[in-house]
Amino acid sequence: MPAPCRPPSILRCVQALSALLALALAAAPGYWNPGEGDGCLSAWALSFVFTTLLLLNDAFRRPPPRRDLPLALACAAAMACATATILWPLGHLRGHEGSYGRPRALRAAATAASAVATLAYAAEVARDRARPGEAAPYLATPSGLLKVAEAFLALLLLGLSAELGAASGPAALRWCLGIFCVSFVLGVLLVGGCLLGWGWCGWMRDPEGMRWGLGIYAGLGVVAYGATTVLWSLYSFSDDMGGQSRRPYGCPATCPWDRRVLVAVLSGLNLVAFGVDLGQTGRLVLLRA
To answer: CA-CA distance, 146 to 144, in Å (whole number)?
Structure first.
């Protein structure tokens, strides 16, 4: 006899409904900016799909293969919805891009629904993450969740910098693009390896060399993102190096200058994430030495 269904999680229902509502409201006017608009709609759609799959899994009492899988998905969805909450109004509500009347109201409502989704996903991460001293899979720990955030920020930086034409820009910007690409690939390999159940992902089972390896990875991330933060800012906003120190007058809502500022801010944010990760990893290495 099959196991009876159980009531769905209220928090997951809020996540799914708010992501779906943001998607529907954003698509209702029938047009949006290509590139960033497509990314925002994709973020809401993927968040809704994965959350719905987890709801169905819970309803039929089938636990996920790993405890950290829903947590990693919630962390990625929180960052995706947070990014959409920022990018969507920048490209669709500023100036004449937002239009007026019903389309503008729908886009503003989509932004609000995306903010609710962000808070709901963040609440799940805060509720279910591993506490100090608790035996848990690596991605359920603060250090593991930072790896998910670092990989997502690298993906976002890679997309934004490529869209801004960094590949055909000065050598320094091409170096930044390469760092974003390598960082994203390494982050995906690390997170994917943990989700596939590689034994070294649990700190209680890690060999000493792997703990040092994760510390070196975080240290290299600090150096790399420290360099990208400086180089991107210099070559994007210094007049002496071909940048623009001020936003061009009359630049539209999709102004490239705004996106360059966003890349600089996100690069600095990933620098902070790697710095915190290095501190936590280093503390664990020292405590277990």
So the answer is: 5
Rounded to 10 deg, the angle between the 171-195 and 208-237 helix axes is 150
Among the listed residues 66, 22, 64, the one whose alpha carbon sits nearest the alpha carbon of residue 42: 22
Distance CA 25, CA 32 (A): 12
Render pLDDT for 66-83 as a digit per residue (tens, 0 to 9). Answer: 778 889 999 999 999 999
Measure Cα distances from 88 to 85, 106, 114, 239 in Å: 6, 12, 9, 29
Going by pLDDT thresholds of 50, 70 and 90, the confidence category of residue 168 is confident
Residue written as tokens 């915190």?
276
Task: Please report, to the nearest 10 degrees, the dihedral formed by the alpha carbons of residues 249, 250, 254, 260 taken in order.
Answer: 0
**Between 106 and 31, the higher pLDDT residue:** 106
How many CB atoms neighbour CB 48 within 10 A?
22
Tokens 């593991």 belong to residue: 144
- Cβ distance 167 to 174 under 8 Å? yes
Dihedral-angle region of residue 68 (phi above 0 means left; psi in -120 to 50 means alpha; beta otherwise): alpha
What does pTM read for this prediction? Answer: 0.87
CA distance 148 to 73: 9
Q: For residues 271 and 149, give the distance between their C-alpha atoms in angstroms, rounded to a whole number.
A: 11
The DSSP string of 221-247 is HHHHHHHHHHHHHHHHH-GGGT--SSP
